[in-house]
Amino acid sequence: MTTAAPRTLAAITADALRANCGEGDCWARPGRPCSCAPAVHLARYQRARRRGLLSAADLTAVLAGVIASAVPAITAPAGRAA
Ligand SMILES: [Zn+2]
């Protein structure tokens, strides 16, 4: 059994941009930036996963990054920067 090397977020995002977005009023088409650019809507990663453009490990890496960036903001005491 072989294990694929983890991909960079940049590579994962490049593949996610090959899918339509589907977030709220965005609906960016493949190759076009999201309305929140330079960020990319999470819905686009999920859609890319459903279309087979991303692996489960890719989506897990994206979600881990979202959680890691949100936790300091959630747990930081009021009035202190994370
Ligand atoms: Zn979008």
Q: Share of helix among residues?
A: 40-55%
Q: What is the first-to-last residue Cα distance?
A: 41 Å
The distinct bound ligands, ions and cofactors come out as:
zinc ion
Structural class: mainly alpha
Main sheet overview: none
Total helices: the number is 3
How would the global form be characterised? Answer: globular
Task: Give the beta-strand count.
Answer: 0
Tell me the strand percentage band: under 5%
Mean pLDDT: 87
Low-confidence segments, ≥5 residues, pLDDT <50?
Answer: none
What string gives the helices and strands in order? HHH
Total discrete domains: 1
Characterize the quaternary organization of these chains: single chain
Radius of gyration over all CA atoms, rounded: 15 Å
Describe the model:
This protein is mostly helical. It has one domain (9-73). 45% of the residues lie in helices and 0% in strands. It contains three helices and no strands. Helix 1 (9-16) packs across helix 2. The longest helix is centred in the last third of the chain and has 20 residues, at 56-75. It is globular. The N and C termini lie far apart (41 Å). The model has no long low-confidence stretch (mean pLDDT 87). Residues 21, 23, 26, 28, 34-35, 41, 44 line the site of zinc ion (ZN).
